[in-house]
Design goal:
alpha+beta; 35% strand; disordered C terminus; 27 strands; disordered N terminus; 2 domains; Pdz3 Domain
């Protein structure tokens, strides 16, 4: 599968006006139960050379990178409620007309109070000692009456990496709030924010599994960070597109011809019944041959991230993700010409990790996990994220000193503690090697922590 390349897009700023506004009657819905169905990861990906993450950048300094929700969180004191609504299945031969789709103007009026603009401001000092400010603008939507808001991870990535970065949330009626980052999941480009508010109008979540190609969809967002609360419409152009972000992450996306531009990132994609069935994320701008293209937008299906959002709200991170406690790298083509097999070459094993307990050593090359062949670090990442969870046991096929061997590993959970332990030990090891050898050789490839 070919990778998609992501590029940033700059603009002049976030200058949209709000004007007068009267809140309409909120859409109806009811509490939903946990959905344990895992995200689907299937489909085809065409080769595309340029795909723009729909996050508007101001000043050129902001970075870019994007869960089944249940009705009431398990904490007894929580009053957080998330709404989900059943909708008729679209008939692909003869429309039964038993359901009553909303007109675009009714859909907009009902959901405008639930849509927000998000601005992430960063202040830094340049090499000349001057203080500069830059910002990233995106979109989001209100999930609960008590202030939980969903957006793309790449919209707030600067805040995820730096606690001093400010996140502002703006509503169509002019209300502004400072938001706290509850949690983000870069691998799925999803983040949850929290503002101190009550009585907000939440969206109603739909069922993206019921979507069919050709049915109408709508999005409300902030293109260019300026044209605030714009409504665009289109159709579902395709389902289950596998899109590689270029950061060793592949996402299942639905394709739409809704106008999606920088600034739309994190906004809701609605079906014709007014239910959120996706998170607008990116657009295709150019083919591999340099031919420009329009009308090719991508959104994350809401069913794929409901469980993730629920985990972020309750725990601040996604639970159950497998973690080995290794750093791996690519086996170079030069090494392969000398008979070294392709795979995930182990550069570092964290003390006390699942990998160490399994017997993995630096210099090992992982060539398979159970029956799945591993020919690169990205293949190992894909196999782990698709097929395993914390606590699962697997058999690793490893090449050590030109001999094949089998190791049994039981995965730890990937969380801040296990990742920090891996990173701290690795930094210590590098410092020791630098002091002993005068330098530390690093492979000219990206590193992957698992």
């Amino acid at each position: 599968m070919s990778d998609f390349n992501f590029y940033n897009s700059e603009n002049d700023g976030y200058r949209g006006g709000f004007g007068d506004y009267t809140d309409p009657i909120p859409t109806s819905g009811g509490p939903v139960a946990p959905d344990s169905k895992p995200p689907k990861k299937k489909g085809n990906a065409k080769r595309i050379a340029a795909l723009v993450l729909a996050c508007a950048l101001v000043g050129g300094g902001a970075g870019v990178g994007g869960a089944a929700l249940y009705g009431k969180l398990t904490q007894p004191e929580s009053s957080t409620t998330i709404y989900e609504e059943e909708r008729p299945q679209v008939q692909t031969v003869v429309n039964s007309n038993k359901g009553q789709p909303m007109t675009p103007e009714a859909l907009y009026a009902a959901n405008l109070p639930s849509c927000v603009g998000i601005t992430v401001s960063t202040t830094s000092v340049n090499i000349f000692g001057q203080t500069t400010t830059s910002a990233a603008s995106g979109s989001g939507f209100v999930l609960t009456q008590d202030g939980y808001i969903v957006t793309n991870y790449h919209v707030i990535e600067d805040a995820a990496n730096d606690n001093s970065v400010d996140i502002q949330v703006t509503f169509a009626n002019g209300d502004k709030y400072t938001a706290k980052l509850v949690g983000g999941e870069k691998d799925n480009d999803v983040a949850v924010l929290k503002i101190e508010a009550a009585g907000l109008t939440p969206v109603t979540l739909g069922d993206s599994d019921k979507l069919v190609v050709g049915e109408s969809v709508y999005t409300i967002g902030n293109p260019l960070g300026e044209l605030t609360y714009s409504l665009t419409n289109g159709i579902v152009s395709a389902l289950d597109r596998l899109i590689s972000t270029g950061d060793n992450v592949t996402l299942n996306m639905l394709q739409t011809n809704c106008d999606i531009n920088p600034g739309n990132s994190g906004g809701p994609l609605f079906d014709s019944y007014g239910n959120v069935i996706g998170i607008t994320t990116a657009k295709y701008t150019q083919s591999s041959s340099g031919v420009s293209a329009e009308g090719l937008g991508f959104a994350i299906p809401i069913n794929d991230v409901k469980d993730i959002i629920a985990d972020l709200i309750e725990h601040g991170y996604v639970t159950g993700k497998p973690y080995m406690g290794v750093q791996v790298n690519t086996v170079s083509s030069e090494a392969q010409r000398y008979g070294i097999p392709a795979g995930a070459a182990v550069e570092y094993v964290a003390e006390g990790s699942a990998a160490e307990k399994a017997g993995l050593q630096e210099g090992d090359i992982i060539t398979a996990i159970d029956d799945t062949a591993i020919d690169s670090p990205s293949a190992l990442t894909a196999a782990l994220s698709s097929n395993y969870k914390a606590g699962d046991t697997a058999t690793l096929t490893v090449i050590r000193s030109q001999q094949e061997m089998k190791l049994t590993i039981t995965f730890d959970e990937k969380n801040a503690e296990t990742e920090a332990n891996n990173q701290i030990q690795q930094n210590t090891q590098q410092e020791q090697q630098q002091s002993q050898n005068g330098y530390y050789y690093q492979w000219p490839f990206g590193n992957f922590h698992w």
